[in-house]
Amino acid sequence: MALEVSVKAAAGCPEVLGDCPFSQRALLTLEEKKIPHKVHLINLAEKPQWFLEVNPEGKVPVLKIDEKWVSDSDVIVEKLEEKYPEPSLATPPEFASVGSKIFGAFVKFLKSKDPSDGSEQALLDELKALDKHLKAHGPYIAGEKITAVDLSLAPKLYHLDVALGHFKKWSVPESLTHFHKYKELLFSRESFQKTKADKEHVIAGWAPKVNA
Fold first, then answer.
1. 98 and 118 housed in the same domain
2. What are the pLDDT digits (tens) for 80-137?
3. CATH at residue 34
4. CA geometry: angle 59, 30, 163, nearest 5 deg
5. What CA–CA distance (Å, rounded) separates 4 from 15?
6. Hey, which residues are catalytic here?
């Protein structure tokens, strides 16, 4: 029996996959593990009644596994690893937090209206740290094999690319060669191509936050 997963629909296009990086993380995990699943696209502006009944907080993603709905992408990934251990996507503990500060640094820089507030440098420092790690341990964060930490980071790097390119005409320096190879590896995977949101929806998703 296929699992069921509820993820964000695109704003204004309820039939199209939306721009939530945490929803994509859940979908990537299902795809990489080749687990049959049914996707429900949830219009967050008009959440369906059945969805609110099973998930009163109304957040996405949520996964139905063993007849229970589970929320939070961390918990979802953990449950899937437990129930479907092959192929393993478990990240060795010593690598589990690599790159974990990039998304926060990206959001701060994206929203920044003050070029001298240090937010650009803070993001560059995090990206350089990842590049250095990949040089020593790559091509993926834990070595030769993709693991959960990569599937968590991939959607966030996609948002970083699209949103900073659009709103700030900014891109990651070419000198971070290991980072760029890593990003290409992730973005070219079949699982990523199948689960990524269109760039226009990523831009639309960030616009209210940037213009706030």
1. yes
2. 999 999 999 999 999 999 999 999 999 999 999 999 999 999 999 999 999 999 999 9
3. 3.40.30.10
4. 60
5. 17
6. 20
